[in-house]
Specification:
Length: 128
């Protein structure tokens, strides 16, 4: 050891070292940490997921004929008809192919924000 026991005792007495917390104080400190962790989980995980779920639900209720959609299976098409009490939609995939899908399997609307960037079109024109 680099520090002698006598020196360590002298420093401890001079600095007035605090004693270990009693059981009640230790319990309260632990509960405080647990509450902080619960709050962090709520703010970082639960709340954003609820927000995304709410936005997706609103998007599904706003679906109408002619909307371009992407299904959970990766199929891209246009809503042709909403059937069966608003639970099912008929999606036209093009080429005369129509499929019936549950409204809940619609992943997103394929609107202007999802469309390919104009930069890709410019790069294609430069190649010519």
């Amino acid at each position: 050891m680099l520090i002698s026991k006598a020196y360590a005792q002298g420093v401890e007495l001079a600095s007035g070292a605090a004693s270990a917390p009693n059981a009640g104080e230790a319990f309260m400190m632990n509960m405080g940490l647990v509450l902080i962790l619960v709050a962090l989980f709520y703010v970082l995980l639960i709340r954003p997921q609820q927000k995304r779920f709410k936005e997706h639900s609103e998007m599904l209720t706003a679906l109408k004929k002619g909307d371009k959609v992407i299904t959970g299976g990766g199929l891209v098409g246009k809503v042709d008809k909403i059937t069966d009490g608003d639970n099912e939609v008929v999606v036209d995939l093009g080429g005369g192919v129509k499929v019936t899908a549950l409204r809940s399997t619609i992943q997103s609307k394929n609107d202007a924000r999802v469309a390919p960037a104009k930069d890709a079109k410019k790069s294609d024109s430069k190649k010519k």
